[in-house]
Amino acid sequence: MAHMEIVLIRHAQPEWDRADVAQVDPGLTPLGAQQAERLADRLSTEHFDRMLVSTARRAQQTAMPIIAALPGVPHEDRQWLHEIHMPASWQGTPAQEVTRALHDARFRPRDQWWDGMPGGESFEDFHARVTIGLRSELAELGLEQREDGLWHIPANAPRLLLVAHAGTNSVVLGALLGLEPEPWEWERFASDHASITVLRTVRIAQSYIFSLQGFSDHGHLPDAMVTG
């Protein structure tokens, strides 16, 4: 019987502001680096056929110890896994101004949420980028979704490890679970830093669906190291 798992990793804690200055493409904090090491230890005994990594610095740095812990697993970067792009003009802006802009944006009318932040990537474009990239990736592996939403899964389907972001992973979850998109996907699937989420195919009606088997698992982190 065919079977497939997709394991989604959210990057470790990023350094969004450095000396009170905003960073658009941050690396990890010292705590984030420790989270990534513990995550790598957790994954080191598991089998994966392929690893895909977001091009964002925080995901790349999270992936580094995982790659070292899984030396036989092929890994490739994927731009479609990148989190929604914030305005480039935020780089170097006082962090308080960015925090205020994000806070105020939460109170926008629903239709304005689809536009994203002014000067950044719209949610519509972000959602399209991720879902098109995901479906293209799966199609290359022989996975096909029928018109009724059920999936054909080949017998040799690989176990995939994706190192990405809260927003990206939320869009992947929504797409594979058959949910209508919302411009606040991050809130529907709020995962912690360096956490593990698992999707597994389940046999249904002579085809397959994707089933959520585990969400935001951070058992490899002590309570004092859990951030979100």
Write the layout of secondary structure elements.
Layout lengths: L4 E6 L6 E2 L2 E2 L7 H14 L6 E5 L2 H13 L5 E4 L16 H11 L4 H4 L9 H18 L3 E2 L5 E2 L7 E5 L1 H11 L8 H4 L7 E9 L2 E11 L11
Parallel strand pairs: 1-8, 4-5, 4-8
Antiparallel strand pairs: 1-9, 2-3, 6-7, 9-10
Structure, explained:
Helices cover 33% and strands 21% of the residues. The N and C termini lie far apart (37 Å). The chain has seven helices and ten strands. The strands form three sheets. The protein has a six-stranded mixed β-sheet with strand order 5-4-8-1-9-10, with helices on both faces. Helix 2 (57-69) links the parallel strand 4 and strand 5 (75-78). It has helices at residues 30-43, 57-69, 95-105, 110-113, 123-140, 166-176, 185-188, and strands at 5-10, 17-18, 21-22, 50-54, 75-78, 144-145, 151-152, 160-164, 196-204, 207-217. It is globular, with a radius of gyration of 18 Å. The model has no long low-confidence stretch (mean pLDDT 93). It has 228 residues and is α/β, with parallel strands linked by helices.
